[in-house]
């Protein structure tokens, strides 16, 4: 896959009322995994929708390889950029195989026939998401976690160079959360797929992101490496929560420990290094 540039220049978005996004500027690192985090209703999903052309900014623009996406042909954009929205809807009665096959639509012209390449893309997407055994079942019959993996399979079948995913591990148990995030990491590392996703779990975001974007009230509060963004100050500003940041004994990345009113054994002057040593001792 070829590396692409994706940038946002001063976009503001509203849904008939006050602005949801306020003059945002953002450069998404090419060939990297970017994770967007923030409190509920801060504009994360709206930002992702604007990046995929599902909503049109009333000011500013989103640029793909220097070209405004709102001026690109739909098929051209869909061959490069794929989106998994937060709450996708499937036609009633559609089977898993048929839904995943719809991911191939951008690769087919008006008079194109289904090809062996399409078959291979769908088979691969079903296999890597663990949904092959579900291929002939109706989407309506599946659990929430199964449906989520099928939607991810459809996004993968599209075979785009850029994947935008809004909370892709919602409804998944921890095993399938890790499997999906590992799969996205492999797509990024092996194929160079640019991944941009919204996640709620800050520690999983820290473990899998190359670039972290923290939003507050429709604005970008901080953006950069995980080490730059995941700080006590940022957590307090973005979520209104006190925390401690230690080193994740598994990944070596920052690990956020939230502080509540109960079960709090940490003191303000606790040494983060000692906390990390104690965590590693617990895992040994």
Largest sheet: 6 strands, mixed
Q: Provide the succession of SSEs.
A: EEEHEEHEHHHEHEHEEHHEEH
Total strands? 12
Count of helices?
Answer: 10
Strand order of the largest sheet: 6-7-8-3-9-10
Radius of gyration (CA) equals 20 Å
Helix content: 25-40%
Could you say which structural class the secondary elements and strand pairing correspond to?
Answer: alpha/beta
Outline: globular
Mean pLDDT across every amino acid position? 90
Strand percentage: 15-25%
Low-pLDDT parts are none
What is the straight-line distance between the termini?
A: 41 Å
* Oligomer category: single chain
Describe this structure in words.
- The chain is of the alpha/beta class and 284 residues long.
- It is built from 10 helices and 12 strands.
- The strands form 3 sheets. A 6-stranded mixed beta sheet has the order 6-7-8-3-9-10, sandwiched between helices. It has a 4-stranded antiparallel beta sheet with strand order 2-1-4-5, with helices on one face. It has a two-stranded antiparallel sheet with strand order 11-12.
- α4 (116-128) packs antiparallel against α5 (144-157).
- The model has no long low-confidence stretch (mean pLDDT 90).
